Amino acid sequence: MLYKEKEMSEDAITVFVSSVNEAVKTRLRTLMEKVADPVASDMVRHQHSAEDDPPLISGIRARFGSRATQRPFPIQPDRVSQELRNWEVDQTEMRANENVLAFWMRMEHSGGYSILPRVAKDLFALPSSSAQIERVFSVCGEMVTSQRASLSNENVDMCAFLNRNEAFVDIAQCESIPDDELDSHIPQCVSYVMEATPRDDEDEMILDLFSQASVEEEETGV
């Protein structure tokens, strides 16, 4: 069935772009909170005296002395928000022939960011398993064929992104049709009911649409 291509309005495009941005920011913030470590000021280093430790066998305490331990405190949400705000207004651009990991390593060495570079390593570093990458590449491979050789790299990337993120992006805005309602959505003009009682007039009309050679081949099974 052919569908007429409908051009999206500017308002709909704005809504879709906004929903994608919000979903990306939410996931990015979650990753940043996971990989962020407490800063040095949030770490309390204290010394255990001999009275604080439980009794040990022989002279182990005397051999190794007291221990210095660290007590981590919860991540401060304002650190994550501050880096996100800094990145939104940052005008730093990637250099020629610079990959994503090299770019974020340079940003980390500049001292302006400490959490986002770790997120970049988790997202863009080579994983130990290539199953997820192969699934994404297979989608691109099925789309980029000799008949579609004029697709730009940006369009291929965006199509792969939309294909792997259907949960929060629905471009078509089409509701799925239940299996028990499929027959009611088939136009009558493209269907022909094969009734038990022969209807010669309709059969003759159908035969007129086909050549006699095709009918004979169908009857003889050739």
From TrEMBL:
HAT C-terminal dimerisation domain sequence ranges: 83-165
Pfam family, one: Dimer_Tnp_hAT
Highest taxon in the source lineage: Eukaryota
Transmembrane segments: none
UniProt-recorded Gene Ontology molecular function terms: protein dimerization activity
Protein name: HAT family C-terminal dimerization region
Organism: Phytophthora infestans (Potato late blight agent)
